[in-house]
Amino acid sequence: MSKTVKLEQKVHAKGHEIALKLRERFAAKGIYVVNLIGSPGAGKTALLEAAAKHLGARGGVIEGDLATDNDKRRVEKAGMRAYQINTVGACHLDAAMVRDALNEFSLDGIEFLFIENVGNLVCPASFDIGENIKVAVVSTTEGEDKPAKYPKAMKVASAMVVTKIDLLPYITCNVGKMEADVRNIVPGMPVFRVSSTKDEGVKEFIAWLEEQRGSTVAASV
Amino acid sequence: MSKTVKLEQKVHAKGHEIALKLRERFAAKGIYVVNLIGSPGAGKTALLEAAAKHLGARGGVIEGDLATDNDKRRVEKAGMRAYQINTVGACHLDAAMVRDALNEFSLDGIEFLFIENVGNLVCPASFDIGENIKVAVVSTTEGEDKPAKYPKAMKVASAMVVTKIDLLPYITCNVGKMEADVRNIVPGMPVFRVSSTKDEGVKEFIAWLEEQRGSTVAASV
Hints:
2 copies of one chain form a homodimer. In chain A, helix 2 (44-55) runs parallel beside helix 3. The first copy, chain A, has one domain: P-loop containing nucleotide triphosphate hydrolases (Rossmann fold, 3-Layer(aba) Sandwich), CATH 3.40.50. The mean pLDDT of chain A is 95. Chain A is globular, with a radius of gyration of 17 Å. Helix content of chain A is 43%, strand content 18%. Chain A has helices at residues 2-28, 44-55, 70-78, 95-101, 146-149, 151-155, 175-185, 202-220, and strands spanning 32-38, 59-65, 81-86, 112-116, 133-139, 159-163, 191-193. By secondary structure, chain A is of the alpha/beta class. Chain A is built from 8 helices and 7 strands. In chain A, helix 7 (175-185) links the parallel strand 6 (159-163) and strand 7 (191-193). Chains A and B meet through helix 1 and helix 5 of A and helix 1 and helix 5 of B.
């Protein structure tokens, strides 16, 4: 097993190197990169559809899925350019996949690049794919205990978006507990309560991203 | 990379050996084992809570989670004995974890052993943990495209349970499309439409499991 671990570390180190280069490339273009991680059906694509209304052509998306190009088509229809990666078997995106995608996807005019990871609240948390920040997306319908049950995803995230708040009248979910649990793991974690379909809370999330981009771009000057 | 692949194959082969022994051990006791796979918050634990009402002490549960013993406590409260595995980092259960759990969890009196895998619709699909069948659990709130987007989990499953059908009036989800998509991957796949909280469709799912157990026990005589 130690041999496996060593080889895995080597693979991780290689990925880290590619991620660093990607991050430099994005920074040089003033592009702020957000790696969205969350369960299948957490509402990551719907959040991007809603974000498209606020960002328009300033936003771009790389979609990661095992199969189908459903999400790419949804995001394009909403008004942002998008590229689809199909991982087939892989449970997460890695930096090399993102690098290869950029051979076919132009970053021109993009200020915010969203990378929607494979639907999986576990594995994507362990991989640096050149992003500025990871954002954890958790839906109310998954249940209030998800932040406590998936602590690694919370630990690596810079913010949590709680989606589908419009369904709260019909389900049992204490969003206050989700917030308390995530802040128990990451003190002061920003939390955004969002309904993507009703465009609630999306503006606040985008405003926060604009702030983050602003200070990152300023810092890199 | 080929060295990593070879080592992975070795690890898989070892796991397969343990799984075979587990399956023999379960068969000798007449225990039918169901490996539940699904996203975080798909409603796997709620399905088990509902199953407890029908099976009582005939059912037992091994819970797999990265963290917390929430699910064990929920299932016990509902009336089935349960054991919690915390995988910490691991994105799926493996056969050795199940074997080790059985050192501390008695199978006496149990006819159906449910193993609730880590919330993840990707990785658990690749691991044999000694079960008779895998059952894919997908909620209506995750969206109708999940069977098409996670084909591997469907391919290895012997049935699909669509949970949270009581929320259909409030969301956009075509369950007929989910059924068509999964049967496009696995022709004739049994699909159960369930509301665990309203105890709808659970009886039919349990009856199907009883049939499966009946023919398996008969076959092993």
